[in-house]
Write a structure and sequence with these properties.
Pfam families: Mannitol_dh, Mannitol_dh_C. One of its GO terms (molecular function) is oxidoreductase activity, acting on the CH-OH group of donors, NAD or NADP as acceptor. The chain is an alpha/beta fold and about 500 residues long. The chain is built from 21 helices and 13 strands. A hairpin with a 2-residue loop joins strand 4 and strand 5. The mean pLDDT is about 95.
Length: about 500
């Protein structure tokens, strides 16, 4: 550990000048939420809203207990507990950086096989919300049709071993069983991942898994729990040596600091079965209609990330801001967003699609955010079906242009071949990398092979406008290079 003040409850009173700290007594906090998946995004987003609510002296009985179900989560737990679960948030504004220490999290359950400690914690009636950030690909969805994947080995294990589950969802079901049997109420199950209809998807997974072992419990959960949809938004890079050094630059020796952009948004369906914090007092939006907000964000921001990350990898552009600065990749973003994405997005109160595109362009272009193309390109097997292909289907249905999105898919296929145009190797970057790479290599000579991955594309291989454009782009990329294809599409010389 480098220099700086070690972060702990005891040192909060001595934070370096200019670093904002909690304005509440953490000893007064009691838990109300278990959050599974204590990554950077949760700590920069949902936990920050709660921290600022505590600053106002409100809802002090809603503090967070952290949790994880993967062996790697045990390392994060040790680091967090060593600094009393405090986090240094560093805001990366183009005009300058600022730091804030947040304290909404007060504990972290042991990470263990069978998840007994997590189940006990969630069964405590003081816990009224169990929330998750487990990534878009973590909900056991069949990408071909969006249904629950009951055949997955993890799900099969939990169906046979409901008392010693392997998944977060199995643990939640086990805790809800204990609460039902004890005559206690259910908790709200709250997804905070980038999925359209994330509450609906979480409900599908929980009820689908519960029905495999206990249909009666599934009925009880459906009747008594709640699954609010939400839209979450904040760009939060991964933490590495540079971020550790940033924290030390503020005089703090934080093992797990978080950097983030100077923007947050959280839109939540007001559907909670056991109460909720007053997040709206610190900037969140409660609404009965989350769909349009989440559709705007997922289509323009999340799909926009996929538009630029794959050519960025192929052309050895290391950061998202670097992609936006690249004359051809930036032009690709602007043209695809304006012509093929924004026309399929509805406005929301106070924001038209074109204005949101401009906002996202500014955010992606922020050079202070060192967000890597590799991070953004990760798990295309979930992100392309989830973010890009629904827009493509809308374009086909409406007769609108789809050439740009076909190029985006061709660039993904090119990236999955596993080499950049400078000859360097792209390290595996997808849960199904071996399969994607094998198909990408076959598609080099026969582009249709890529679209025959029905678990990704379904029936899109049979759509002539898309399949023909895809084949033309992939052929050109392999014969003349990605930049030639980008020039042809964007009209940039």
């Amino acid at each position: 550990m480098g220099g700086g003040m070690k972060l702990s409850n005891a040192t909060l009173k001595d934070l370096p000048e200019g670093v904002r700290g909690p304005r509440y007594d953490r000893a007064r906090l009691t838990p109300g939420i278990v959050h599974i998946g204590l990554g950077n995004f949760h700590r920069a987003h949902q936990a920050w809203y709660l921290h600022r609510l505590f600053d106002e002296g409100r809802n002090l009985d809603w503090a967070i207990i952290g949790a994880g179900v993967r062996p790697a989560d045990a390392v994060q737990r040790e680091k967090m507990l060593a600094q009393d679960c405090l986090t240094t948030l560093i805001e990366l504004d183009p005009s300058g950086k600022s730091a804030e220490v947040t304290g909404a999290m007060i504990g972290y359950v042991p990470v263990e096989e069978g998840n007994a400690a997590l189940i006990r914690q969630m069964a405590d009636p003081a816990i009224r919300i169990v929330s998750l950030t487990v990534t878009e690909g973590g909900y056991y969805i069949d990408p071909a049709n969006g249904s629950f994947d009951a055949a997955h080995p993890d799900i099969a294990h939990d169906a046979v071993n409901p008392a010693t589950p392997r998944t977060a969802f199995g643990a939640m079901i086990a805790a809800l069983r204990l609460r039902r049997d004890a005559g206690q109420g259910a908790f709200t199950c709250q997804s905070c991942d980038n999925l359209q209809g994330n509450g609906r998807v979480l409900k599908q997974t929980i009820l689908g898994l519960a029905r495999l072992s206990d249909p009666g419990l599934a009925d009880w959960i459906a009747a008594h729990s709640a699954f609010p949809n939400s839209m979450v938004d904040c760009i939060v890079p991964a933490t590495g040596p540079a971020e550790l050094a940033l924290a030390q630059g503020f005089g703090i020796a934080d093992q797990v600091p978080v950097t983030h952009e100077n923007f947050r948004q959280w839109v939540i369906e007001d559907d909670f079965c056991a109460g909720r914090p007053d997040w709206d007092r610190v900037g969140a939006t409660f609404t009965a209609d989350v769909h349009d907000y989440e559709a705007m964000k997922i289509r323009i921001l999340n799909a926009g990330h996929q538009v630029i990350a794959n050519p960025g990898e192929v052309l050895s552009v290391e950061t998202i801001s670097g992609c936006m600065e690249h004359p051809l990749i930036g032009a690709l973003f602007r043209k695809v967003e304006a012509e093929e994405i924004a026309p399929h997005v509805r406005p929301v109160p106070g924001m038209e699609p074109a204005a949101y595109v401009a906002l996202i362009e500014r955010r992606f272009s922020n050079p202070a955010i060192v967000d890597t193309t590799r991070r953004v390109a990760f798990d295309g097997s979930s992100r392309h079906p989830g973010f890009v292909l629904p827009i493509l289907r809308d374009g086909l249905a409406s007769g609108g242009p789809v050439e740009g999105l076909a190029l985006v898919e061709a660039l993904w296929a090119r990236m999955c071949e596993g080499t950049r145009e400078d000859g360097s190797v792209i390290a595996p970057n997808d849960p199904f990398w071996d399969r994607r790479q094998a198909v990408a290599r076959a598609a080099k000579d026969r582009p249709a092979a890529w679209l025959e991955q029905r678990e990704i594309y379904g029936d899109l291989a049979g759509e002539p406008r898309f399949a023909g454009a895809f084949a033309d782009w992939l052929t050109q990329i392999w014969s003349a290079g990605a930049e030639a294809a980008l020039r042809d599409y964007t009209g940039k010389g």
